[in-house]
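User: For documentation purposes, I need each entry recorded in a consistent format: the amino acid sequence on its own, followed directly by the corresponding structure tokens. There are two entries in this batch. Please keep commentary to a minimum and don't merge the entries.

Assistant: Recorded as requested. Entry 1:
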Amino acid sequence: MSSSFIVAAAMLLAPALGAPAPAPAPAPQFTVPASFGPDSQVSAMIQPSTTGYRVEVLENGYTSATYHGPYTGTPTTIGAADGPTTLASSIASQPPNPTATYYNTEGVPLNPLPAPYTPAGGLGTNGSLPRYMVNSDFDFESIALGLYQEWIELDLFHDGLARFTDEEFTVAGLGPEARSLIEFMADQETGHSTLLTNMLGERAPKQCVYNYPYTTVREWVDFMQRLTRFGESGVWGFINHLDSREVGQLLAQSIATEARQQMIFRQMSGLTPMNVWFENGWPQSWAWTMLAQYISYCPENTTRLAWQNFPTLRILNNANINRYSPNDTAQDGSETVGPRIVDPSRSNITGSCQNLNVTGFGCGPAIAHNKSEPLSFPGKKVLFQWDGPGQAVGPNNSYVTSTSAGAPKFVGWSQQLNLTYSPLTVTGNNTGYTYQPEGYVYDSEGIINGTMAIMLTDLDLYVTPFNTSLLNPHIVALGLYQAG
């Protein structure tokens, strides 16, 4: 191995992991501080905005971009990023990998150990120097999508802190310590975006300008628990398909914090923090479909993505998480703040559970809540309305929704280790309904729960967690279901 390669690899690793040589350990501190005053404050600089809009200092010194609204210009580029040619209309399902035959009936290593305490096998275990860079078009497009996600989270987490007053946070049950935690989660996104930028190189996407749907603290927190759901699931869906195992390693260490963020935002929304045994993985195009609807402007020459944007599926009676009786949610879509896929539940309603201190019915911020009346249940009639393809979405309205599927016949429910189908009954022009199916992962653990992807398909194709993207050509429209 040449010395120049070793140096290059070390330079790639250094900005990604970003750690100078550790300083000598300080002497033990035996005196317990009696007070914490202004002298303990550390000065900091506000980082310049990369969006073209200046950063504005708003409530309590928190900062946010000065504009969050729709795109008002004319797109100069249309459509997803494309390669030199496309080899086929879809990827066909294949038989099992012929080399995947290992089965251990002995319970001990069957092959010689390459080193002490080191069983044979594994990838990246031969001592070669790690290269923490994307290693294929698949890697580049996947990590670029992840960076788009990190950028919006960095802006979003700051925006609510700067937008709402102390009084509004107090009414929502979130005190200064909760806001400090959200600020820390925003700071986490600084690290995540730096890491992904370093692994992509010079064409890494830059931060954009965003168009958010919320008007209250409750709606902001609800929107964040939904957005971090597709942020997390969108990575679980592709991480083990990456060509670069090194990139996958670092990405896993960042997405583990994303999972914690999603759970915390569920707690702040008054939802059960964990109500599934397994988190669900999604193909990249599902995450991009949901994310793109909230990006209005991007800087000129921002790297574009190759992933598909599906038409929107709206759940007209998606349970309002702010109701003490979720089954009283209106049936016409009016209790969602807008028409986009991830828009939160309206919080300013009659019959709110927000300040209801009754076990089983309250939904204020808490470590955990049990619901006497669930948000959804097997047999619930679920009402749909969906868009046709051809809608302008995403940065600068420069992406277009599309589908290669035929007429919708089924509803796909993607959660835990399963993708389950129920029949769709079409009632009119792009309207219909189904009944929430019953099913179990193992034992008594129901499949459908939490914040989850739902879609209309033309075929009940059998897919599993490692090949879910085979369903993409059969998706008519994509939505987000609040099951629990």
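Entry 2:
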Amino acid sequence: MTATYVPPSALKSRLMTALGLQSGNPSHEAVYLAVKAECATAYEATCGNRANLRPEFSRIVDKFTYNQMKESAIDNAIVQIYRNAQPNVRLWYDSWGVDGTSSNFIIRWFLYHLFRNRDARNDRKAKSMDFHADDDDEDSE
């Protein structure tokens, strides 16, 4: 099944539908979490290298946003995630019809949401609601 394109800002439910996965199905959620875990490793590496920041954001201390990163850094992260994917995750990418290029919208979606859920905009929300903002709740963008 080739996945239908989903923009990075789409909700998790829309991505899951496009990938033929059902929220609440334990095996489908396991696939989602496996892809997310691999993307989280690349997210950490990308944020850990200040050279990945666009020049106008070079003085920011931490909690970077997706848009503060150079496009080439995001593209490189996508390629690395695909290249380093575990065999079971690679099978899913292949079944969804995506490859190891920067046009891989699935990996881009995950990276976008990792940035979105971990950037400074969520600090007040997380503290006031006593939860970790990385929960991928359905209403997060």
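Summary note for entry 2:
Helices lie at 12-18, 26-47, 71-83, 87-96, 105-118, 123-129.
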